[in-house]
Amino acid sequence: QQPVQSPQAVILREGEDAVINCSSSKALYSVHWYRQKHGEAPVFLMILLKGGEQKGHDKISASFNEKKQQSSLYLTASQLSYSGTYFCGTESPSNTGKLIFGQGTTLQVKP
Amino acid sequence: DTGVSQNPRHKITKRGQNVTFRCDPISEHNRLYWYRQTLGQGPEFLTYFQNEAQLEKSRLLSDRFSAERPKGSFSTLEIQRTEQGDSAMYLCASSLVGGQGGGQPQHFGDGTRLSIL
User: Fold this and answer.
1) CA A39 and chain centroid, separation
2) How far apart are CA B69 and CA B52, in angstroms?
3) Given pLDDT bands bounded at 50, 70 and 90, which one contains residue A56?
4) Residue A32 and residue B101: Cβ atoms within 8 Å?
């Protein structure tokens, strides 16, 4: 079952914050976040494991609510380089290793 | 440290032809994954290997698709009798094996873009 991401698209000014949500109808083992720029490969951002803490680096962080089977990606003080499409990928406890990706959230940061 | 390498980068072929793509994973990674991505969608899981063993193949995948990883290093994905609907970006990723078999970042190659005429 494909996770659902929201919103589908976001337009920001540099320096503004954004939150991208990922919701699954199934129990999760982990949630992975990737960013993909047009014509390029998805780039790994971070992974959140069941039982793990909130993670982050620089101005990008994420949380994982196991009970609600939801994860959120937080982008703080956005930069032009944050533009791209963000995907969450979910792993189920019964089938670890295999990622099911959401449909993506397109983020555009304007000067 | 080289990343995941895929070739060719682009493939244009006529409907009905067979095509083969190659993926070279990060050398110490024992898991290798194939995904397909169409415009505006997230990557769609096709199949994955741990060393040379194919652990799962998507039920949505036609019998025209086959993948191998003969020595647990590089992998090939073959599509026989290509159809218009096969046009997509084919992505390869690799990872280590984590505890309980998962929870490891997957690192993607730049993909092979397939266009069917």
Assistant:
1) 19
2) 5
3) low
4) no
